[in-house]
Design brief:
Blueprint lengths: L1 E4 L5 H17 L13 H9 L3 E6 L2 E10 L16 E9 L8 H15 L4 E7 L3 H10 L2 E6 L8 E7 L9 E3 L2 E4 L9 H6 L8 E7 L15 H8 L1 H4 L9 E8 L5 E3 L3 H8 L6 E8 L4 E6 L5 H9 L8 E5 L4 E5 L5 E3 L3 E8 L5 E4 L15 H7 L7 E4 L7 E7 L4 E12 L8 E5 L3 E5 L2 E5 L4 E4 L7 E12 L2
Parallel strand pairs: 4-5
Antiparallel strand pairs: 1-2, 2-3, 3-4, 5-7, 6-7, 8-26, 9-10, 10-11, 11-18, 12-19, 13-16, 13-18, 14-15, 14-17, 16-20, 21-22, 22-27, 23-26, 23-27, 24-25, 24-27
């Protein structure tokens, strides 16, 4: 097969090929194109002028025509692409009827990718109509992923978009993550605050946790296409998460809403958790997002309490609440809990939680509460006593006020780093290629990069790949950014 740019003098033959292809489509009940509406002579003439319309000849006969375009049409702007900032797009592929099944269309895709590389592009994008089963199958087989859909008003079905990276260092774009939820019997202390404050589509009125960015089995967050974080990491590896962060994925990001008090808990360190649970330990930090007046947290043991005294109380079934230190909190407070520190979230609190990616929690006291069946929740007294460090007092600080513009370090501890960005207008995010980052908008704002943008509602979270392009936050408000160190 011979590929060449179409010349103006060859356009009449090209028009005839498109018309024959359209007649064949209509005969098969596919009304993706209508000659004179799309494609049209003026569009194809412009393709020739811009030297982007190609023809394929076989044994001296014209068998196919297609356009290879650098940059993308406006219809692509709201698609959740994940690869590249300088796309080459394949459009207007027409084959002479009767030539399907000979590999011509697949060869055209490969030619378009190679032409994109020659032209300095880093990614390949293409779309087709939702009723075009042949093209859907072709593009699914010759690209990496289906990125999303868009609609054109005159068509009853949607157009499906596909993409693939072209270069080894192709940038990965940030993408919104959708949470998994813990609710009902799993979180009897939960409520409706995540819906009331952030419009979350919570599953019931006792929803305690939105796992915004999570690899916890059975509770994985997903992107706009419904792919799990595990699947995304498997495809992109270190380009997404940074070297050494794939197995196991190190962090877990939650929004947590407590209508009533959680049990008093403690978390093991990595060494203990790996030895006894075959999992990571858990160090975490909270940023208070909303708190009722007088709301409190349990935060460490009181000064005079020894481990021996605590053990006597726990094993004797005594109320240990008087042994726990309590602090009043307000929106904006930040509290760090290293593993081994006793803690509990009180009622009337909604918070952001960044932690190691682990679901290991030891419950040492639950206020003797019972469920509707009169059953108490199980305690983990032996494990708790093994890991409690009565001397730990944590670390307390605050996120910056919204008017303190720029990027601010909030916490930098062994397991993770937490920053806060305050924006009024635009702010270019500093580069950090060692690790993925997780951005959670505390106020509605946008994030933009070369050739793309994304709007975030308050309470929505974004995964920023390690190999992300330069990103700019747009709007007024604050966002929390967490990463491994």
């Amino acid at each position: 097969m011979n590929y060449s740019l179409v010349k103006a003098t060859e356009l009449p033959e090209v028009y005839a090929l498109y018309q024959a292809a359209i007649e064949d489509m209509h005969a098969r009940g596919l009304y993706q194109w209508t000659w004179g509406q799309y494609p049209r002579e003026d569009i194809l003439t412009e393709d020739v002028v811009l030297q982007r319309l190609y023809q394929v000849e076989f044994e001296g006969a014209l068998v196919a025509v297609f356009a290879v375009c650098v940059g993308q049409d406006p219809e692509y702007d709201d698609v959740a692409w994940q690869f590249g900032i300088n796309p080459v797009c394949l459009h207007r592929v027409a084959l002479m009827p009767g030539l399907t099944g000979r590999g011509i269309a697949k060869d055209i895709v490969n030619f378009a990718k190679a032409e994109g590389l020659r032209l300095g592009c880093d990614c390949f994008r293409v779309d087709t109509y939702g009723q075009n089963e042949r093209a859907l199958k072709l593009f699914a087989a010759t690209t990496v992923r289906e990125a999303g859909t868009f609609r054109i008003e005159r068509y009853p079905d949607r157009f499906h978009c596909f993409e693939a990276p072209l270069t080894k260092d192709c940038p990965l774009l940030p993408f919104r993550m959708h949470p998994a939820y813990r609710y009902g019997e799993q979180t009897p202390w939960g409520g409706d605050a995540l819906r009331r404050l952030y419009g979350k589509d919570i599953p019931d009125e006792r929803t305690g946790e939105a796992l915004e960015i999570s690899c916890i089995p059975g509770l994985e967050s997903t992107d706009d296409r419904g792919e799990t974080l595990t699947a995304l990491i498997a495809r992109s590896g270190a380009a997404l998460v940074g070297e050494g962060n794939a197995e196991p994925f190190p962090l877990l990001l939650k929004l947590l809403a407590a209508k009533s008090s959680l049990s008093v808990q403690v978390h093991p360190n990595d060494e203990y958790a790996m030895a006894h649970e075959n999992k990571l330990g858990k160090t975490e930090a909270w940023v208070i997002l909303d708190a009722e007046k007088g709301a409190q947290l349990c935060y460490g043991l009181r000064e005079s309490v020894t481990l021996a005294a605590l053990e006597k109380a726990l094993t004797g079934g005594e109320d240990v609440e008087p042994m726990i230190a309590k602090v009043e909190i307000a929106a904006g407070d930040v509290l760090y809990m290293p593993s081994g520190m006793v803690h509990a979230i009180g009622g009337g609190i909604t918070l952001y939680e960044i932690q190691q990616s682990s679901d290991v929690t030891y419950r040492l006291w639950d206020y003797n509460r019972t469920n509707e069946k009169g059953e108490k929740r199980p305690l983990h007294i032996r494990q708790s006593l093994d890991v409690i460090d009565p001397e730990l007092k944590g670390l307390r600080t605050r996120i910056p006020a919204a008017e303190e513009l720029g990027e601010h370090k909030v916490l930098n501890v062994p397991a993770f780093r937490l920053d806060c960005i305050c924006v009024k207008g635009v702010h270019v995010l500093s580069r950090y290629e060692k690790s993925f980052r997780m951005a959670t908008a505390l106020d509605a704002m946008g994030i933009a990069w070369q050739g793309g943008k994304l709007a975030l509602k308050a309470g929505e979270s974004l995964l920023i790949p390690a190999r992300a392009p330069e990103l700019t936050f747009i709007g007024t408000g604050r966002a929390l950014i967490s990463s491994v160190r």
